[in-house]
Write a structure and sequence with these properties.
The chain is an alpha/beta fold and 418 residues long. 33% of the residues lie in helices and 18% in strands. The radius of gyration is 20 Å and the shape is globular.
């Protein structure tokens, strides 16, 4: 028997806010969180801007100094976002007020890269002294991409399924989709689901820039330009996003607040190129089509918002536009579309979860966040991308697209809570 799945908690660490209220207020008002990098030298780097996390206070998320010293930032951000989401949901898996069986609470939190900072630090030690005597005994357990999920499970006594997915930029959209299926088919009653990454470090900027993926713009406020004819690559950003997916009956029984219902998930592969998307959009379109079929999309009744992958690279934005047209047909021109990456940048393994949160809040509040800096539209990108200012609309269906290196495509769909 298939079960209904609802969203009962949200948590975010992002360049435009380290809590959900600030994040959403920034997106609605077109606030750009991309800035010149000042916390490490960029003189010799080809890229000098990014979406860095600002004013992070670990005390707000129950993170102590020993944990901060031992862990990579991707784990710290993931733990902070999960802390918010669990507090928001009201789920408790231990203590006298326990309202979920720990074995029915899972953690599906992924990372596109894992402990990037730890890798660089420890490899540097090894190159200086190949005996390895100075390598930290915590190198492996703080570097591996699954360790954020593991630490979140420890903190919340989640003894159900604990899964890490790593599908590059599609990571947390795949994670949320797989968590949706697990709850829907009865393998858990609730899952802490999302993604986390911290890649805006010197070697990360150098690597993505050399792969011709990053913009070299020196103006941080006019750098992330999805669907703009002037676009020249994406902007690297950091952060974490976490959602609580819960079985509808379980949520109702405990009186939980419901943000939205999750109603669809599609996943495909381009099987085309390591980094470039399939140009005709056909495989990306299939992931969207699977999700909207499962959602019960009705072109005569639904008012649709699409949070686009919208990276601001030449190839992605055109391929995604084609994919939306293939999946929706003529209805594509009626869809409200925007790329919130224009404000928060590309958060890699966290970006799908951050954009899922934006999609859910757009449905809840009836507000479509804008694509800022869209002052020179690309003629090949001719849909309604909500340029520059938020738009109010009574939405019924929201979808979020993510496409990653390796050809990984994922799409998730949500309906407005009734």
């Amino acid at each position: 028997m298939e079960r209904r799945v609802v969203i009962t908690g949200l948590g975010i660490i992002s360049p435009v806010g380290n809590d959900v209220a600030t994040f959403w207020d920034s997106l609605r008002n077109g606030v750009c969180g991309i800035e010149s990098i000042t916390d490490f030298p960029t003189d010799q780097l080809p890229v000098k801007i990014g979406g860095r996390i600002k004013d992070f206070d670990p005390d707000l998320y129950g993170i102590d100094k020993p944990f901060m010293r031992k862990q990579d930032w991707f784990t710290i951000y993931g733990v902070a976002a999960a802390y918010q989401a669990m507090a928001d949901s009201g789920l408790l898996s231990s203590g006298e007020e326990r309202n979920i069986d720990p074995f029915r609470l899972g953690v599906y939190v992924g990372s596109g890269i894992g402990g990037f900072n730890v890798q660089i630090r420890e490899i540097g030690k090894f190159l200086e002294d190949p005996s390895g005597q100075w390598i930290s005994p915590l190198f492996v357990p703080t570097m591996i991409p699954n360790i954020a999920a593991g630490n979140i499970a420890i903190r919340h006594n989640a003894t159900g399924p604990c899964i890490d997915v790593s599908t590059a930029c599609a990571t947390s959209t795949n994670v949320i989709g797989e968590a949706f299926r697990a709850v829907k088919h009865g393998y858990a009653d609730a899952i802490i689901a999302g993604g986390t990454d911290q890649c805006t470090i010197p070697i990360g900027l150098a690597a993505f820039a050399n792969a011709k993926a990053l913009t070299h713009s020196e103006d941080p406020k006019y750098a992330s330009l999805p669907f703009n004819a002037n676009r020249a690559g994406f902007v690297s950003a950091d952060g974490a996003g976490v959602l609580i997916l819960e079985e509808y009956g379980h949520a109702k029984a405990r009186g939980a607040r419901i943000y939205a219902e999750m109603v669809g998930y599609g996943s495909t592969c381009d099987a085309y190129h390591m980094t470039a998307p399939r140009p005709d959009g056909s495989t990306q379109a299939e992931s969207i089509s699977i999700a909207i079929r499962e959602s019960g999309f009705d072109k005569d009744k639904d008012n649709v918002y699409i949070n686009a992958h919208g990276t601001g690279t030449k190839l992605n934005d055109i391929a995604e536009t084609k994919a939306i047209k293939i999946a929706f047909g003529d209805f594509a021109y009626k869809c409200h579309v925007s790329s919130t990456k224009s404000m928060h940048g590309h958060m890699f393994g966290a970006t799908g979860a951050a954009e899922a949160i934006a999609t859910i809040l757009a449905l809840k509040d009836g507000v479509i966040p804008p694509t800022i800096n869209l002052d020179c539209p690309d003629p090949e990108c001719d849909l309604d991308y909500t340029p520059n200012k938020a738009v109010r609309s009574d939405l019924t269906l929201g979808i979020s697209n993510s496409f990653g290196f390796g050809g990984h495509n994922a799409c998730i769909a949500f309906r407005k809570a009734e």
